[in-house]
Amino acid sequence: MTGAPSGFSTVVGHADTIARLRASYARDRLAAAYLLHGDDGIGKRTVAEAWIRLIQCLTPTGPPAEAEACGACASCRHHAANTHPDFLVLEPQEATVITVDQIRDAQAVLPYRPLLASRRVVLVPDASRLNLEAANALLKLLEEPPPHVVCVLIAAQRERLLPTLVSRCQAVRCAPPSEGAVIDHLIRRLGLAPDRARALFIRAQGHIGPAIEAAQIDDDDPLSLDDVGAPSTIAKTVALLDLAARIGKDQQALKTLVAWLSLWLRDVLAWKITRDPGRVLHADRQSDLTWWADRLSIDDVSDLASGLHAVWASRHRNLNPQLVAEVALLHISCRVTHPRRQETA
Ligand SMILES: [Zn+2]
């Protein structure tokens, strides 16, 4: 966990989920395992971490329905410093799978009484990464859990987990925060202008995590990703190389760029076919969309979109994100600045 404040009060949306978790805490009857499931990028891990801090806090504050970790006790301080002796996170090794050895290592510690908090907690931030052997080992653990252990699993799709494992968990569905809640958060917490907050919300397709990441990538940047759609930027090789240089080795930044370009091309296509502002996400960019739509055929847009898909598929191949971004941007730039003959439709 990071050192940033991370109580429930900092979570955007998720009121129902938080109410359910608090109710379970207030009754003092925690399940041995919880499964938080719902779309990627909506804040499930933030909710889980606030919940874990609460159930391990030594001096929680507020009435049960509004309970929060105190932020000051030894347990909370260890969480803030990432040194909690009773908290274990099972991340996939080499960003691929969680192995049975990781579960066995956990099993070796979990039977012992917690050192600091009243319970030990295991967090599995992406349970879909458990390989079959690991999932079966975790299932064994959940069949006879030590009384002081709580497991918190997170997954985008519970259907992709071992059904027997899911049946051992109290499943809590997490709904995405509303558009208003995400935009309000971007304005109030990150100090963005309302137009900028809305543009980021659109770019991140309504997902709070990617929206915040995009805001941070854009921070202090003279060129925002939204400018890539401007004819003066996409036609300027130097500007595109600068943008790629800022991506550097950051895979996440590459992901944000690819996501933005995909949405932009989607808009170009929708604009080309309909010229209906109600059908595009960037309704405030009609003259830029027209410029693109006039220069690209439907086949061009489709080719460029497939190219982006290939870029995205290559992300695990240890390619340099900056070079990948350069190639993708220059390819698009070339196609749009040297249009081929348009089909007559
Ligand atoms: Zn505390």
Note down, in words, how this protein is organized.
This protein has two domains: 8-173, P-loop containing nucleotide triphosphate hydrolases (Rossmann fold); 221-337, Zinc Finger, Delta Prime, domain 3, CATH 1.20.272. The protein is built from 15 helices and five strands. It has helices spanning 15-26, 44-56, 74-80, 100-109, 132-143, 163-167, 179-188, 194-203, 208-218, 231-234, 237-247, 251-274, 286-295, 298-313, 321-337; strands at residues 33-37, 87-89, 120-124, 149-155, 170-173. α5 links the parallel β3 (120-124) and β4 (149-155). It is elongated and about 70 Å long. The model has no long low-confidence stretch (mean pLDDT 87). It binds zinc ion.
Put the structure in a nutshell.
By secondary structure, the protein is an alpha/beta fold. Helices cover 50% and strands 7% of the residues.
Bound molecules: zinc ion
Amount of beta strand: 5-15%
Output the CATH homologous superfamily of the largest domain: P-loop containing nucleotide triphosphate hydrolases
Regions with little confidence, pLDDT below 50 for 5+ residues? none
- The N- to C-terminal Cα distance equals 55 Å
Share of helix among residues? 40-55%
Major β-sheet annotation? 5 strands, parallel
CATH topology of the largest domain: Rossmann fold
Physical arrangement of strands within the biggest beta sheet: 2-3-4-1-5
CATH architecture assignment name of the largest domain: 3-Layer(aba) Sandwich
- The CATH class of the largest domain is identified as Alpha Beta
H/E series: HEHHEHEHEHEHHHHHHHHH
- In angstroms, what is the radius of gyration? 23 Å
Q: Which structural class best describes the helix and strand composition?
A: alpha/beta
Mean pLDDT: 87
Number of helices: 15
